[in-house]
Design brief:
Length: 466
């Protein structure tokens, strides 16, 4: 299987440079990458990854790749019969599967060398462009290619499922298929995100399906059993003295052990004193108490996560409008492999009468629509305070935080955007939202709403308009 000839036109090279721009948005800089059907290595050449390996069935293409990209590794091999014994963080199939005789087989071969954290990234042309390519071939404007399958994204999703992969998200990119110049940057950065149906290239990100990962002898050792998993619950607390003890007494036990990390944030009531009292009153419970280093919930969460020792990290808002009794649902979703980022969702079940005002409801639904568009995977409620992920994944988010910067004082968007950039599977966990029983909200509807909108626009610049 070969995705290209040993020599490429300048247009083809420019197109691969353009593809690399979008691949780099999906790749952590420390990732190890395998490209199956790498051709002459022009895509790998422009990828920012710690290790780059390419395989191709064409010996001339492999020889050219070794000469043109000496700092990457290349092997002559058939993707339908992979003999590799190592695994990679990311495997790429770029504009290749339409020329593969058995797509399901190659997906299965890649699955065999994958771990539960491996991500498969596929690019393929939008079938809407098929008449354009056919005309270009007829007029001699395009180099000759072998017969193409012209798979749709639905076809690919189905074949992925048959080979034990789970699609995470699909994104459309590129209206103008040549890298460089004002016109290209203007069209691909600002127009393409608004007209995804007309984009040339579709990016599909998938992860190994959880059922197969749990039953595979090769991968079972990498999955931690729930009863061996430890939990850290970070509880940001500002003017919440009346809810501190209930956070302890109402939370069910989870995993091997559960610890609570209360992070007090400059309260005007006796919240800090109450945290210390509860800590002494429940000596059998693992309780940590600290006062945050800065301002805002985002800072409190980061301070708490820095002190966490558990394998799974949870955020529980101290107002307890998200009932602590619901936390095992999140724990199960992450430890069972249903997702890697469990996001609380208040907008499915009926909520208590005074739990959320109408304008807040409208804002939450609007942000849900915007986020689903930004991330390419469904997120219905972005502002629910309860979010759960593994500590190992959070550490990766923190290590790659420089891409977005410290832009979010609340912490919700920071975690969601960071998780999406790492290709983590995000899943909403519906809960019943309750009325507050103590104190009043720390959220200012108008000023904080405007700030959240500005953060969405900032993130759109980083994720869509690039």
């Amino acid at each position: 299987m070969s995705s290209s000839d040993a020599s490429l036109s300048s247009h083809a090279i420019a197109y691969r440079r353009l593809l690399a721009r979008y691949f780099n948005l999906l790749l952590p800089p420390d990732a190890s990458v395998l490209e199956v059907g790498c051709g002459t290595g022009m895509l790998l050449k422009h990828l920012a990854a710690s290790r780059r390996v390419g395989i191709d069935i064409d010996p001339q293409a492999v020889a050219a790749a070794r000469e043109q990209v000496p700092d990457a590794e290349f092997q002559e091999a058939d993707g339908n019969h992979l003999q590799l014994e190592e695994s990679f963080d990311t495997v790429i199939l770029s504009d290749t599967i339409n020329y593969v005789p058995d797509v399901q087989s190659i997906f299965a071969q890649i699955r065999r060398i994958s771990t539960p954290t491996t991500r498969l990234i596929i690019t393929l042309p939008n079938t809407l462009w098929r008449p354009v390519f056919a005309l270009a071939d007829k007029l001699g404007w395009r180099r000759s290619h072998p017969p193409s399958s012209w798979l749709s994204d639905r076809d690919v999703h189905n074949l992925l499922s048959l080979a034990d992969w789970e699609p995470i998200k699909t994104q459309s990119r590129i209206i103008f298929p040549y890298a460089g110049g004002f016109i290209e940057r203007a069209l691909n950065r600002w127009v393409a995100p608004l007209l995804p149906w007309f984009c040339l290239t579709q990016f599909i990100v998938a992860r190994p399906a959880r059922d197969q990962a749990r039953s595979s002898n090769t991968l079972r050792r990498t999955l931690q059993a729930p009863d061996e998993t430890t939990v850290s619950i970070v509880v940001p607390a500002r003017n919440e003295a009346g809810n501190i003890e209930a956070a302890i007494t109402r939370t069910p036990p989870m995993g091997k052990w559960t610890e609570f990390i209360f992070v007090e944030g400059g309260s005007s009531d006796n919240t800090w004193e109450e945290i210390l009292r509860v800590q002494k009153a429940y000596p059998a419970v693992r309780i940590k108490a600290l006062q945050q280093s800065g301002k805002g919930k985002g800072n409190a969460v980061r301070d708490g996560f820095a002190q966490a020792e558990g394998d799974v990290l949870m955020i529980l808002d101290t107002d307890l409008t998200m009932p602590p009794e619901e936390l095992p649902k999140y724990f199960h979703a992450v430890t069972a492999g249903h997702c890697e980022f469990a996001n609380g969702c208040r907008l499915v079940y009926p909520m208590d009468k005074h739990a959320m005002q109408f304008l807040n409801m409208l804002a939450n639904k609007t942000f849900g629509v915007l986020f689903s568009w930004l991330l390419g995977q469904p997120v219905k409620d972005t502002l629910c305070g309860t979010k759960v992920l593994r500590r190992s994944d959070y550490e990766r988010i923190a290590a790659n935080r420089a891409y977005f910067g410290d832009f979010d004082p609340f912490g919700d968007f920071d975690l969601l955007f960071g998780a999406d950039r790492l290709g983590l599977k995000i899943r909403d966990i519906p809960i019943r939202y309750r009325d507050r029983t103590y104190g009043s909200t720390n959220i200012s509807r108008w000023s904080h709403g405007w700030l959240l909108l500005r953060m969405v626009l900032f993130a759109a610049r980083k994720l869509k308009f690039v």
